[in-house]
Amino acid sequence: MNLTTFIVKRVLAAVPLLLGISVILFGVLHLAPGGPLDVYADIPGVSHEALENIKRELGLDQPLPVQYVKWLGAAARGQWGYSIRTGRPVAKDIRERMPATFLLGGTAFLLALAAALPLGILSAVRQYSVLDYTFTFLSFIGFSMPIFWLALMLQSLFAVHWQLLPSAGMYTIGDGGLADRLKHLALPASILSVAYMASWGRFTRASMLDVFGLDYIRTARAKGLGEREVIYRHALRNALVPVITIVALDFAGMISGAVITETIFAWPGMGRLFIESMNGRDYPVLMALLMIGSFALVAINLITDIVYSMVDARIRYD
Amino acid sequence: MQGLRRFVSRTIWSLCLVIPLAGMAAAQERGGTLTVALNYDLDTLDPYASGFLTDVQATFLAGLVAPDHDAQYVPVLAQEVPTLENGGIVLSEDGSKMTVTYHLRPGVKWADGEPVTSADVVFTWEAIKDPNYLGPEKDGTAEIERIETPDDLTAVIYYDGVYSGFKASLFTYGVLPKHALEGKDLNKDPYWDAPFGAGPFMVTEFSRGQHVIVERNPYYFETDANGVQLPYLDRIVFKIIPDSNTQTTQLRSGEVGFAYNVPYTSLATLRNTPNLEIISAKTLAFRHVTFNLRNELLADLAVRQAFAHAIDRTTLNRALGDYMLPIDTFVVSTFAYASDDVPTYGYDPELARQLLLDAGYAPGRDGVMEKDGKRLSFDFMTQAGRAEYETAQQVLIAQLKAIGIELKPDNKAGAALSEARRNGGFDVWYSGWITPADPIDSYVSFYATNGFNNGGAYSNPAADAALYAAAGSLDPEEVEARMHEAQQIVLSDLPSIPLFETPSIVVTTNKLQGFVSNPTNQTNFRQVAPWWLAK
Amino acid sequence: MTERPVQDPRTLLGEALKRFRRHKLAVASLALLVLLSLAALLAPYLTPYTFDGQDVALLGMPTPPSLAHPMGTDHLGRDNATRVLYGARVSLLVGLLSALIATLVGTIVGALAGFYGGLTDNLLMRATDVVLSIPLLPLVIVLSGFLRPNLYLLVLIIGVLGWMGTARLVRSQFLSLRGRDFVEASRALGSSGIRIMFLHMLPNALGPILVSTTLSVGGAILLESALSFFGFGVQPPTPTWGNLLNSSRDWLDIAPWIATFPGLFILVTVLAVNFLGDGLRDAFDPRL
């Protein structure tokens, strides 16, 4: 079996996976008690007739399987329907929020990488040193940290108490210069990066230690190559492959982290759109966001699989 | 005709106790930008479809009439408020129907320069009434049989009955521009991305999740006493800030110059901030404890009276920030027919216990009163996730425990709450109501036998008669007499205990002048045109 | 997975215990967790206050920490320390129970897949992939936001969505055990599949399962507190660390200590759980 067949096979296998995901999500969203028209439940002046009209228009009066098939057909053609809350195309609502999430997530990822890689490598190189122990301890704190609490505490210190940084938002209306935007980005991005930093750092360390145990590194060392060269030319390149996988998967799961950080810092991205849509029972938007999140995970998994099979000869195409 | 326009559960409205006098001393200055904090995530700028109050919409849409700071209707696009006396309202010969005539102000233009005509009034009615239009706020459309437009400035509206509350609905929210919307799909038209109307401002930017910017409408009709065209402000920026801590921080730093419904938890900090004014603004909202009379123990008047005497409004108020105004009736003080001649139930735990003992109850082993093996233990519902309600609930639980009544929290939200509230899925319920400027239809919905908000199944034919008579009358004296009667009956029967009138805390920069708050669902921004900023 | 000689589980346990004792942080963490659980259980005897007892004299404003109230009081005059202690009950319970549910489901799925292989394996693992491909936090928020769960339904939701890791782990263990002599022997003796799976194979996989259960306790505590923090989890007046943090937000400005303590407790507890898991991993899997 050659590489192309392998890729085709894997891509085809992703289709039933995505279908399964969409069935589960659709079921979860529509079997819940109440309905998307809950938003209007607190306005008793809304007539029964008006609600029935909305239901019919949105297709909510049809049996669930019919609704699903219709949704699937439309989604496959790239039509995600209209938001119940805003009356605008779902795709438009989401597209507007995407850049903010990518900006926040991307910055957090760069921060996390910049700290995690050197620390993880150093820790592995100096295994059992004070630095290694300190780093290990700190990374345990990092992934045991309730992020929302950290956010709350830092927000309270930096924004409320010391008034050094803005407490929320993406930029000051009427300013929006680079410095202004960076100031707004500082708190949420650093907080979002904490968990990634801890987990990637640990992972880098473990991966490096694994590689150090491999024969060819021992051979390289035995050949008398300088320690620097062994580490950076030989070990690092191989150790980074699994690290990149984790980073890629975390990137696909960005929306989970974004939900918390964006809500606390009123960051106008997809995570906050998700919470708003939750509160407004905006099924089409929720469905689309969850599908996008799942699709990203499936796609990244697929890509890493394929990349692995290309770079790592040890995996055969079976 | 229409019920409650909106509930407290979404946002409370505000109004003015304090009418700033500063504006009269200095000459008004034109210009400047006011930044306003919106504490909810605005969904749409369509006032008939939004799930929130119409703060932003009130700045760019103008109605025919609107309620002012005293909840009295004043003309806006109409030349005067139609009444029986001025001939604006004409009853049919048998008194079963009415016709309302509006004369539009001449020379009024939309923000794009086109003239406002009676055809726009007809268009608005038809567009909102259209079953294909999905906005749920269709109040006041169904009762209209037809609208005639004898000329460009006259709209004659034929109703299928007599409705004292006709002003509170359709044409107050705003007349829509026919020329911009005719033939378009009102549900989805891009018009709503940057809508305009005949109000003092027009939307120039709606950045979802972040802000709405409205700028001066160059064609706005209103002028001040010196003939200067309103509004004074150049621009209002509505910043979407759902988090109260952020709102407080931005008020302190001056990034926000106006916020309302400020939670009392923020006041301690804000009071110490120079350059801020804190105003306790009256609203049409009140808080109440309502009983489900289907519960056989609560059907006993003595138990309800004991309940009422066990509540210490002073302590409860302190827990809620000490800014509520205790009331004894369900009609808030803004309305002339609020009665002070009703039975009152002062805090008296001894009396409360005695009432229960006299009714045959005795303390059980756990201290809870019981009779014939039935304990005075009830499910106590309030809206889940609403800090003020949950706080009040917990204080009330403690107060009732003191006289031997056990309340078990059973909080709900969303559809479950609405369902329980309307169909009696509670024993005892703490909540708030907010009525429109014409509140009688709301009272009917709370206390009449078939009222759609009467989840506690209260029924007294005498109360029904008084309430319906008040709702169907256009004569203020008759309304007052009937409303006094209704309050007397309801407060004697005690299906519900009114607790507080609920002001809204408004915090503004001390540069803001001319602000007069509005207690109704038309929001503070209904009268935004004369606001101005001192330099 | 490299081949490992099958040992008598008892010796294995003894050696594991020895190795575990060498992991000082893990031992200390275990002690801390036991202490915390005891304190939570005995809460009524440890504090003179009740979790919903209001001090009318203090009503209206939170008070800072003092001798009578080491963590201060909240705006209803309730003792914060007492509420944090009672909150520990819920948080620990949710953490433990949902981790157990996750382990149970995961073990059954993984065992079936690993033991029977073929179509069963394929179907179960595809199902695992499906659930694993949905972003967890948003899915849990949707479920608990729509269902407004009570405590036990919440435990179920968190547990049922957390089994995939265990399933994969158990499957790989079973796959490697499947061909071993003792399994073949039991099969030849006519033991039923269930019997072989749970009596003979499972004990050999217990170590890694225990480690993953422990680690998922930490995850579950974090998830519950995040949910309650957003108002989608356990509803007041039942205090949990998450909803205590939620209600502290209103007072962040003037009474930051209300937010400080529940958060610290979450951090320290989850940290201890993670150290414990690390210690257990060292104990049961000495190669790492």
Overview of this protein structure:
- With 318 residues, chain A is mainly alpha-helical.
- Chain A contains twelve helices and no strands.
- Chain A has helices spanning 3-31, 48-58, 64-76, 90-125, 130-144, 147-161, 178-212, 215-222, 227-252, 254-264, 270-279, 283-311.
- In chain A, helix 4 runs antiparallel to helix 5, helix 7 (178-212) packs across helix 9 and helix 7 (178-212) runs antiparallel to helix 10 (254-264).
- Chain A is flat, with a radius of gyration of 24 Å.
- Residues 41-45 and 314-318 of chain A have low confidence and may be disordered.
- With 535 residues, chain B is of the alpha+beta class.
- Chain B is 25% helix and 21% strand.
- Chain B contains 15 helices and 24 strands.
- A seven-stranded mixed β-sheet of chain B has the order 8-9-10-1-11-22-12. A six-stranded mixed β-sheet of chain B has the order 14-21-13-20-18-19, sandwiched between helices.
- In chain B, helix 8 (301-310) runs antiparallel to helix 10, helix 13 (440-447) packs antiparallel against helix 14 and helix 14 runs antiparallel to helix 15 (476-493).
- The longest helix of chain B is centred in the C-terminal third of the chain and has 18 residues, at 476-493.
- The two termini of chain B are 46 Å apart.
- With 288 residues, chain C is mainly alpha-helical.
- Chain C is 72% helix and 0% strand.
- Chain C is built from twelve helices and no strands.
- Chain C has helices spanning 9-22, 24-41, 43-46, 80-116, 118-132, 136-147, 151-160, 164-178, 181-188, 193-229, 241-248, 257-284.
- The longest helix of chain C is centred in the middle third of the chain and has 37 residues, at 80-116.
- Classes of the chains: A mainly alpha (318), B alpha+beta (535), C mainly alpha (288).
